[in-house]
Specification:
Layout lengths: L13 H6 L7 E2 L2 E2 L1 E2 L10 H14 L9 H21 L7 E4 L2 H16 L5 E5 L8 H10 L2 E5 L9 H7 L4 E7 L11 H10 L3 E5 L11 H4 L3 E5 L10 E5 L1 H6 L10 E5 L2 E4 L13 H15 L3 H19 L5 E3 L9 E6 L4 H9 L3 E2 L1 E3 L4 H7 L4 E5 L6 H18 L1
Parallel strand pairs: 3-15, 5-6, 5-7, 7-8, 8-9
Antiparallel strand pairs: 1-2, 4-10, 9-10, 11-12, 13-14, 14-17, 16-17
Helix pairs in contact: 2-10, 3-10, 4-5, 11-14, 12-14
Length: about 425
């Protein structure tokens, strides 16, 4: 029997919230959609859809330097969106907010600008074993380019970063540390405050990959004292193709441009070119204006909710999943860290995760299967991948139960 799970937090009306997300109200393969793939991409509230429609139907124009009303309105919305992100992260200046295509581009930008300028032969860069490929490959390539060493913080069987091993890896040759705030594959929350403090003691700079964190709780980059923080809009209830790089102003000022062309220039002549001030130095070409506007609308929507209540509800969803899993002996959990977000990764013993995902989809349950762009940690666990159900605040306890009802039917087919 299932033990009692706490009801939805008092004052949090999940049914009302779900009405804000039109995509949730449909059937898939003849079943009501149960969307549990939020770590890959979250859905968009009507407020975001409306903001995109308003931009394209009323204000569509290129930003900056336009001598007409549409350009003025688009520019104002675009720069107001930057201010919204600044407030969201509690950054000290809007100049510290750089628009990118997403977390991946943000990390590559830092690796190929700050990294190329400051990491030399004989130095080392530290990442962890649980990183997403986008926080492995850019540093791997940088180290190969400059002759530096890539060091990897071990992760234990529960999916927890081994902090003492991190301290052992740090030395005077450590120039950069780049770690995920929350593992997309395991849900583990890393002790980024302590990582930043210790890295700064040896003079290393720190980038935090916040793609899986910003949707779950408030992030204060000043309090963290991180040097760089990155995230993607589509995991924060915003549009795809828009992301954010936060960097301390003095570091961004010191770094070379990443791409070259329009907008990032101050003066161009055949005798030489000078570059624009922050933040435009890193925003070559026409930006994703609609994406920025949509991301701002997503942030406005999120911060208007009781985020503590949202987090409590997500924790209840994860606890229900863990409890239901104890009823099925064939379920093997992957990622059991004490401190984690609402990511539930598992295997059904004797079944391939892709087969499980396909049969769940036939019952209207959307999950992610595979290595989740985290192949090294899957290799450590000697598994091909996992089935990953990831919850957010518009999910319900009934949907968690629907997942496990569907798993029981999957067992009949595969075992």
């Amino acid at each position: 029997m299932i033990e009692a799970i706490a009801d939805t937090p008092l004052g949090l009306d999940v049914d009302k919230i779900r009405k804000d997300f039109p995509i949730l109200h449909q059937e898939v393969n003849g079943h009501p959609l149960v969307y549990l793939d939020n770590a890959a991409s979250t859905h968009k509230p009507q407020a975001v859809i409306d903001a995109l429609a308003l931009y394209y139907s009323k204000n569509n124009s290129n930003v900056h330097r336009g001598a007409h009303a549409l350009s003025d309105r688009a520019t104002q919305d675009f720069e107001n969106a930057r201010g919204t992100v600044q407030a969201f992260l509690n950054a000290e200046s809007s100049e510290e907010i750089i628009w990118t295509r997403g977390t991946t581009e943000s990390i590559n930008l830092v690796a190929q600008t700050y990294g190329q300028e400051n990491v030399k032969a004989g130095d080392n860069v530290i990442i962890s074993a649980m990183e997403h490929h986008s926080n492995i490959v850019p540093w791997q390539v940088l180290c190969e380019q400059v002759g530096a060493e890539l060091r990897v913080i071990p992760v234990n069987d529960a999916g927890e970063l081994q902090f003492e091993d991190f301290l052992a890896l740090l030395d005077e040759k450590t120039k950069f540390v780049s770690v995920v705030h929350v593992s997309n594959a395991l849900g583990s929350i890393n002790p980024v405050d302590a990582i930043i403090t210790e890295a700064h003691k040896v003079g290393a700079k720190v980038l935090i990959d916040g793609a899986q964190a910003v949707a779950h709780w408030e992030v204060d980059v000043v309090a963290l004292d991180c040097d760089f923080y990155v995230f993607s809009g589509h995991k924060l209830f915003g549009p795809t193709g828009i992301g954010v790089l936060y960097g301390k102003k003095e570091l961004l000022d010191s770094m070379p441009p990443y791409q070259y062309g329009g907008e990032m220039i101050e003066q161009v002549s055949f005798s030489g070119t000078t570059f624009n001030k922050l933040p435009y130095k890193y925003e070559a070409g026409t930006p994703n204006i609609a994406g920025a506007v949509g991301l701002a609308a997503a942030i406005d929507y999120l911060v208007a909710l009781d985020r503590a209540a949202l987090a409590e509800h997500e924790e209840a969803l994860l606890e229900r999943a863990k409890l239901r899993a104890t009823e099925i002996p064939e379920i093997q959990l992957v990622g059991t860290a004490k401190d984690k977000t609402s990511v539930f990764s598992f295997l059904i013993k004797g079944a391939h995760p892709h087969d499980v995902g396909t049969l769940l989809d036939q019952q209207g349950v959307a999950v992610r299967t595979g290595h989740h762009c985290a192949m090294p940690i899957m290799e450590q666990y000697c598994i091909p991948g996992t089935v990953r159900a990831s919850f957010t605040f518009y999910n319900t306890l009934e949907e968690v139960d629907a997942l496990f009802d569907a798993i029981n039917k999957v067992k009949l087919f595969l075992l």
